[in-house]
Amino acid sequence: MPSYAVQLAQRLVRCPSVTPVEGGALDLLQDEFTRLGFDCTRLPFGAGEKRIDNLFARRGTGGPHFAFAGHTDVVPVGDAAQWQHDPFGGMLVDGKLYGRGAADMKGGIAAFVAAVSALDGADDTGSISFIITGDEEGDADFGTVKMVEWLQANDQVPDACVVGEPTNPSRLGDVIKNGRRGSLSCQLRVDGVQGHVAYPHLADNPITRLIAMLAPVNGTALDGGNDYFDPSTANVTSIDTGNDAGNVIPASVSAKFNIRFNTEHKSDDLIGWLEEHFNCVGGEWTATWRASAQPFVTPVGSFTALMQTAIESVTGQKPVLSTNGGTSDARFITNICPVAEFGLVGQTMHQVDEHVDAADIDQLTKIYHEMLVRFFKGDS
Known about the structure:
Layout: H1 4-13, H2 25-35, E1 39-42, E2 55-59, E3 65-71, E4 92-93, E5 96-98, H3 102-117, E6 127-133, H4 144-153, E7 160-163, E8 175-177, E9 179-180, E10 182-191, E11 195-196, H5 206-214, E12 220-221, E13 233-240, E14 248-249, E15 252-261, H6 267-281, E16 284-293, E17 296-297, H7 302-315, E18 320-322, H8 330-333, E19 339-341, E20 355-357, H9 358-376
Parallel strand pairs: 3-6, 3-7, 7-19, 8-18
Antiparallel strand pairs: 1-2, 2-6, 4-5, 5-20, 9-17, 10-15, 10-16, 11-14, 12-13, 13-15
């Protein structure tokens, strides 16, 4: 018979909650939270097709206040015919739970809930809350970022938060994410004058200028890194002229690039530096920027030590602290309290036949439970 945590993970996977659809996942969690004595608040933000449903639940009114954060929305399944198991079936096969969101991150949320359900009353001396969004895999405009504003406005800010993203590359206990890099994207258009390649003096080739403009971001490191981060990196991801003719200089060319940057930089500073460079190259150009994340780090201290000790006590290994990889909703939570991420093994997240070991869900439950016990004993 599967454990409560694994059964709850199965039930969550069976909710087809592809962003922005709630799919019944938040309804299911609200029922579980209510049963465990939590006061629940649904927090819809946005409107129309962009409306996102979110859920905040809290038990207790005093401090200290520990929060778990996660998302119930999942990415699309792609071609369902390529799946060996129903992507929303929540099937257990040979000790593995299959389905979209099993790793990212419904299995982690189930472990959150199961850990709280196993708490002894004497261990729960403050407040516990859940910050659950339905908009992590999408644009994230109406999810955790809005919930954080609501928490601040309604005196619900936690003292510490664990985000249950699948941080482990190969086995449970490998990695805690105590920070993330920022992400800055640009779409750059350079305009010239179309003409025949045999008469370049009668044309103005925008590609020549574009290549010069892209030099600082073409597969380069921008710095030497620091104590918490590897060097910032920049890469061109697309160049397009829309030109099918081999003997025509195009009238315009567009490129896209992305910078993943550490705490040595701010997005506005990077934009200013690059636009100054574009102006030095000269000609007509237009840049559209999107800073989707700023870098952050939770420094080594009592909170990271609590997490490492709890993980080591269950798994027998001490996880390393890391800031690599993509972005997560921790980038919003860092504005209100110390935050770090720890969850399941993420080898199959977003893939066909996404799955996790059911035993890992149970072990993760024990880890989260140990974190709670240590937190309320004052270890942080």
